Amino acid sequence: MRRATWVLLLIVAGAAMTLALASGAVPLPWREVLRALLGVGDASTVAIVRELRLPRVVLGLDRKSTRLNSSHIPLSRM
User: At what angle do helices 3-22 and 30-38 cross, to 10 degrees?
Assistant: First the structure.
């Protein structure tokens, strides 16, 4: 793929991750999410994003990857 395509894909993936981090029981503006990822801003926002939401997003990506990979392996029944 061309470099411009990869850059566009990275921008879209970053935007999707930011939106996933912004959603939750306490909605956060995307600017606050970015500040929390950098470690600046309100301590409670940093804790919510880094300790609660970021692991959820990372595990969600891993779970989807595992589900896609395992769908090609036939399951044996006991």
Answer: 100
In terms of C-beta density within 10 A (0-12 exposed, 13-18 middle, 19 or more buried), how is residue 50 classed?
A: middle
**Alpha helices for 23-75 (secondary structure H):** 30-38, 43-47, 54-70
Q: Are 29 and 18 in contact (CB under 8 A)?
A: no
Would you say residue 74 has pLDDT above 60?
no
pLDDT in tens, 44-68: 999 999 998 988 888 876 655 555 5
33, 22 in Cβ contact below 8 A? yes
pTM exceeds 0.70 = no
- Spatial distance between the Cα atoms of 57 and 1, rounded to a whole number of angstroms: 27
- Asked if residue 30 lies in contact with residue 19, where contact means CB atoms within 8 angstroms, the answer is yes
